[in-house]
Amino acid sequence: MNFDNLITENLVLNIVKDKLRHDENVISICETYQIIGGEYKNRLLALVAHGDTSAIFAFASSKWPPELFSDLTIECVYPLNEQFMLDTSSSSNITEYQFKIHSSQGQSVYYYYPFKSAHAKSFSSFHEDCKAISASIPKMNDPEHFKWTQKYRREDQSAIDRNIADGTITLQRRESKFREELERREFEYIVHKDFTIYTATWNVNGRPCGDIELKPWLSATENPPDIYAVAFQELDLSPKAITFSENRPDPIWIRRIMSSLNPNAIYEELVSVRLVGMMLTVIVRQELRKNVLRYSTQAVGTGALNFMGNKGGVGVSMQINEASICFVNSHLAAHSSEIERRKEDHDEIIRRMQFEYGISRRSIDEHNHIFWIGDLNYRLVDNPPRSVFDVNFSEIIKHDQLYQEMQRRRVFLNYTEGAINFRPTYKYDPGTDEWDSSEKNRPPAWCDRVLWKGERISQLEYNSVMSLRLSDHKPVYAIFSTGIKTKDEQKYKRVHEDVLRGMDKYENDNQPQITVEKTDIDFDIMQFNESYTRDITVANNCHLPVRFEFRGKEENGKKICEPWLHVEPTHGELITGDSLSIRFKIFIDVHHAWRMHRKQKTSNTKVPLDILVLHVENGRDIFITVLGEYRPSCFGFSVETLARLPQPVYELDLKDLLKIESDLNSSYSSSVYKVLNIPREIYQLVDYLNRNGLRTPNLFTVERKYATNPLINDIRDWLNLWSPTDFPGNPYTAAEALLMLLESPPEPLASPMEEECLYAESFDKCCEIIKVLSGPKKNTFLYICMFLNELLKFTPQNRLESIKLATIFGRVMLDGHGNSSKSIFRSLTEKDRDERRTAFMHKFLCNDIKDFARDVLTAPI
Fold first, then answer.
1. Position 704 confidence tier, pLDDT thresholds 50, 70, 90
2. Which of 20, 250, 364, 552 would bridge with 24, disulfide CB 3.0–4.6 Å?
3. Cα dist. 698→704, 742, 842 in Å?
4. Domains of the chain
């Protein structure tokens, strides 16, 4: 055996031993995995002996190979009793590396690797060890003989504490008793607050949203809802999306949703989950976001091979206050005759949709309030004449397959559906309110439904929207008033203190500690001017109150994180049993784009972007790593770099872009790169404004109110591609994009002469300073000034004055990010700097610069 592999295997073996008690012997370990909801989950199996009995422990690993005691969590324990069998038989090559464990807990399917792991034994060796142990000891069936395994019940594994493994104390079991007492007395501190929940579903038949207005569907109530759950089916019908199980939420539809919500409240997207054509977006009122303690998503494909995502369901589980809510969006099997297949889809979604919260899972039915929405595809048993579908819905619905299936208690057991008082939602000729006139002549049906289950739920409205004609389906919405369990904090504090007084003191050390859901926060791929959020849960599983805070690092000026990262909350206190959701938000704006280029360096994969220190008072610090991959754009590069681009930014690797940037001052640069007088990106924006914006009122504003307009990102992509298509914005967003592009490089356009600009008293002196700049910089500066002079010719129409334009462009082109370290800058106040920049720019707007510009712009670079 390779010596390094032996060391690695022993390290993993020692970690497994640390999870167990001293009188339990680890015989063998094996690396395996399971496929859960279409995802591959690492598993480590350990054969463990205790006295005359043995068991197989299945560990979930947060990282592979595990490095710490806390990386492993006990998922399940299989006693080697009469019911135990390890079955390696296979019926096809597809399952050649599959095996099943039959036990008193049922059947579990695992997969092993055909090669030997460097961290554990091969499966064949592990299997031989299991057979040898089974043959050498009697298979005892009395539960008393396996009582030692009960100490490792899954629900008792949340606490990460070595004392649990030692057997000195069972911290989580102690905590379980504490929670039991709190739950027993919850009637003393729980109240129910009414929340309005707005559910909506629409099968869009693969049609793009275009400029469709969704307010008739999503703003059908005057009072603003507290929570939205918006579901789509058939977002994408392409074979590629189905084959590769497209799971990226569609940002275009999400933006359309967010702009169509009730205008009487401010909303925030909590999470979106997608599987091929199914997408579910959950949105909460901004002031209620802090009440959402945690959430989880899951997707289940039930299409071809009971796996493909063209049919199935996606779900969101969330805890708000003390209540758990589940939203399920499903698209069940189609066609009138497929009743049994729809039941199979329904059963499979219920069986496989398990929401993960750390080491625990929660099924759909393990929620206080459940809302099941989507295209359920149930049809009518017979085909009544179409004329009856405008009246007497209560009689027709008795012929509905879903109604009959629920009456027979075959599907949606204990779910409720409100009275249907709207026309069937399927099938229409797209663009009309007319029933299907195609050759198939599909009969009308109520395919799109909203069902619910749980306590304290009352339906306020259930309807469809006929005016939306994009699809062959009509959208449906249902509004509910839901009584959410909520703590009365004062009463809870009294009960909590009373319960604490009634519990014996812990026998382990009293060091405060918190459990962090994960220490690697992965932001995946990020782009300029887009907001990204991730949430983690921190919990107090020890018996002491815990105070925590994020602490700054000395090398970062004692700031807790990089300026483009926002953490909320930054500190807090958790009493025993409490948990808290911490949000990490990244937004790369004009001040930070160039920093992200340096941070990413030449890597085309995810890199550590920041490391945060989570300090626990009187406890150990926890280090949280922020990971991500920043996709470069034209924002953040100097005009010299942009002027030398051989291809659009979209087609270049970051290392190629940084190479161009690093070569700027070398003789190699001028001989290799073709240098444009002005970067294409700036030329395209100014050219568009020349043609479309000269008469636009207040085209440029000091407030920069268009910086957050979603069209900015469309313009970004257009510039990155050198796209030949029509400009995707309008004059206002083009103007803002121009300012952002000029402001985003690491140094201002006037660098390295920004200091001299502040002390130039005459126009001639100003011109001399501009002449010193590099070719692309001075050309760009004068090109912008000529455009501004053209703007001033239309002052009566655009209401722009020279001083206002000088102020705006002085800040952008002469100041950049306002972070110069030159001594002259430090000796002036911000007001003085602003006035001097304005005065410099104003000289180019109130003097005739045509001759000067002609001489400079035609000079070779």
1. confident
2. 20
3. 11, 19, 18
4. 3-157 (2.30.29.110), 192-487 (3.60.10.10), 505-629 (2.60.40.10), 639-858 (1.10.555.10)
